[in-house]
Amino acid sequence: MSQQGPILVVSTARRPSFAAALDVAKLFPVVEAEWADAVRAVEQMQPAAVLAATSDVDPTTLAALAAPIAAHQPYLPLIAVDPQGTLPENAIPFFQSQNSQELGDSSRLVARLRAALRVRSLHATVMRRLVPATRIALSDIDTFRDATVLLVGRGGAYPTLSVSLGEQTGVVGALSIEAAAKHLNTRDIDGIVLSEGFSPRVVDAFLTVLAEDARFRHLPVVVTSGDLLPAYELPNLEILLGEPAQMVATALPLIRQHAFEAHLSRTLRSIDAEGLIDARTGLLTPSAFERDFASAVYQTQQRGGGLSVARFAFDPAHPRAQFDGARIISRLMRQMDFGAVCDDGSVVVAFAETDLKTAHTIARRLSSVMRHTSHGKRDTRAEPTVTVATLDSKDSAKALLARLGEEAHRAAS
Q1: Number of structural domains, the chain?
Q2: Which domain holds residue 51?
Q3: Prior bond to 29 cis, omega within 30?
Q4: Which residue among 131, 138, 191, 378 sits deepest, i.e. has the most Cβ atoms within 10 Å of its Cβ?
């Protein structure tokens, strides 16, 4: 991976101990600056990443450095080592262990830095290929709207963590490791919070599986237990203790970074599809859907076979649930199917070579996955109203969609 600039280390007068990890990993050049000169150093040196020793720095000073860093394009990672207090939304936390040699803090820090640089490289690729040039920034990511966190646990802290997370992100709850594994395989997850209620052996096995699977290796993972050593190949693993609200606030920058990376990946797929895919949901754009649907109706009537269509209507008062449902559908629908988000926030999906009974079965399965997601303080769930229609011999594409709308209206009534 190209570093594309120096690594800037910001600290007080003496060189921080973690800077030696950069030398060992041969990440150079490494430039050092004191806090008084940090903002100017960022402007002059155009670094690829900034590592800041924040154990003796107040949140205001850190925020003053984070603000100009947030404006940089492409994404400029800011890693706050041993932060105190609330973090800016673009400051990635890293907590050193008391015995850093035993627990491999150096390799953990380098791994976290490399993971952040991956996001920077992806952002640079998207910027290079996006025509016309459009600004995409980490600040565009609203965790409540764009991120989903998997909360795993069954202890006394679980309800409080669920509320704290639900105020900031979408939440998928799992009371067992088996349920968590199922959600990971069927959903787009931007972070995992592993609460109490499991033995150290079970936690160790779960984290080992995550580290061995390339799909999940870079997920932010927060463990709320103090009897675990962070000796896993998970670059964004943190063990956080304290009040649930503070743990969630500390984890949010990692979650936001992953949601940003996922958004960039969808944008790249949209570019590859020449703009026919909606970068936010992964589904087709409305115009692309109309074209493909008209073609599918014509071909089905000419060659025979089945074609069904389903409409998933969400509560318009909760747009977060609408987009979460759209992403679930985008991930789980069959390769032969295609869908789009309509102007009213509903999602319409065409099921190729599918009769009405099979379409009902597929729609129920998709809907059941959405049912396990909660949003906000009142535990509002993404349970859509689902209507299904199938193509008749005399239907046109417009007539079939109109009939689907009529059936949806009757279902709502």
Answers
A1: 3
A2: 7-136
A3: yes
A4: 191
Claim to verify: residue 278 and residue 395 sit in the same structural domain:
yes
- Residue that terminates a domain, selected from 136, 151, 166: 136
17: domain CATH number is: 3.40.50.2300
How many CA within 13 A on the CB side of residue 259?
Answer: 29
The stretch 348-374 carries a mean pLDDT of: 87
Average pLDDT over residues 389-411: 82
Which residues fall within 8 angstroms of residue 232, CB to CB, at 6 or more apart?
207, 208, 210, 211
**pLDDT score of 213 more than 60:** yes
CA 173 to chain centre: 16
Residue 86 identity: T
23 and 79 share a domain? yes
pLDDT at 141: 92
- One domain for residues 193 and 282: no
At residue 114 the predicted structure's pLDDT band, cuts being 50, 70 and 90, is very high
Give which of 186, 209, 213, 211 is closest to 329, Cα–Cα: 186
Helix (H, G, I), strand (E, B) or coil at 60: helix
Rounded CA separation 8/26 (Å):
14
Q: For residue range 45-101, what is the model confidence (pLDDT) as tens digits?
A: 999 999 999 988 999 999 999 999 999 999 999 999 999 888 999 999 999 875 444
The edge-to-edge listing of strands for the beta sheet with 148-152 is 237-239, 221-223, 191-194, 148-152, 170-174, 373-375, 380-381
pLDDT at 109: 92
Residues 177 and 304 in one domain: no
Same domain for 36 and 102, yes or no, is yes
Contacts of 153 (CB under 8 A, 6+ apart): 161, 175, 193, 194, 195, 196, 197, 198, 224
Assess whether pLDDT exceeds 90 at residue 138: yes
Dist CA 164 CA 8 (whole Å): 34
pLDDT 10s digits, 154-210: 878 888 999 999 899 988 889 999 999 999 988 889 999 999 888 888 998 999 999
Q: Is 52 contained in some domain?
A: yes
Q: Does residue 179 share a domain with residue 124?
A: no
CB 116 within 8 A of CB 92: yes
On whether both 208 and 287 belong to a single domain, the answer is no
